[in-house]
Amino acid sequence: MQLAFLAPDLIEALVSNQSTLCGGVVDLTSRRLPLSWHKQIEMLKARSGVSQSDRAS
After folding, report:
1. pTM of the complete model
2. What is the reported pLDDT for 36?
3. What distance in Å separates the CA atoms of residue 21 and residue 9, rounded to the nearest whole number?
């Protein structure tokens, strides 16, 4: 997937080097992610085990 189609939250995490949710640019762009930003975040949370409460803090 191209970076242009990633959710803004994922781009922000990559730029600020907080890639714990997405695993880094190479890992993220090599995955088959949905185009929906909401679905991207939910899918990556499920894979990484991050809950909504963990993400908010």
Report:
1. 0.65
2. 95
3. 10
What element of type H or E holds 57? none
- Domain extents in the chain: 3-50
Q: Are 34 and 43 in contact (CB under 8 A)?
A: yes
The three-point CA angle 34-5-41 to 5° equals 50
- Which amino acid, residue 57? S
- How many residues can be counted in the chain? 57
pLDDT at residue 40 is higher than 50? yes
Q: How far apart are CA 14 and CA 22, in angstroms?
A: 8
Measured in whole angstroms, how far is the alpha carbon of residue 9 from the centre of its chain?
7
The rounded distance, in Å, linking the Cα atoms of 27 and 17 is 14
